[in-house]
Amino acid sequence: MISKNLEETQQIALDFVRNLQPKENEATVIGLYGDLGAGKTSFTQGLSKALGILETVVSPTFVIEKIYELTNQQFTHLIHIDAYRLEKSEELLHLGWKEIISDPKNLIAVEWPERVVDIMPEHIKIMLKALENADFREIEVVS
Question: pTM for this one?
Fold first, then answer.
C-alpha cells in the first residue's frame, strides 16, 4: 500500500487493527520495521486512535515502553515499545517482556524489532519505507 500523508498512514493502521483477532494463548505482537522517519510511530498512532486512546502517542524512545489501558476492546492493553536504544535483548526482559508476551489480551507494537530479534516471538511484520516524495510511505503487512 502507498500512503500519501499521515492521515492515510493512520487510516491503513485503523483498517489493519479492525481485522486483527487476539491469539488464544499469547499476546498479539506487531513488529514495525523501517528506517528513521519511515512512519513506525505514525502507524502506531493510527493503531492507538483506532483503539480509542485519547492521549497523544509518541515514540517511547527514552522510556522504552509505554502501556495504554483499553476499554471496550478485544485487547485490554496496547503496549508500545521502542527498542532503538537497547544494547541487548536482555534489557527488554527486565521490563517484564516474558509476562507481557504471554497475555493474549495484550496488543504489542515494537519499533525496531530487529534490535531484539532473538527474543521476538512470532509476529506480524509491518514494513514501512519512506519514498522519494517526503510524505509518501510504502506500507507492507507480512503475516
Answer: 0.92
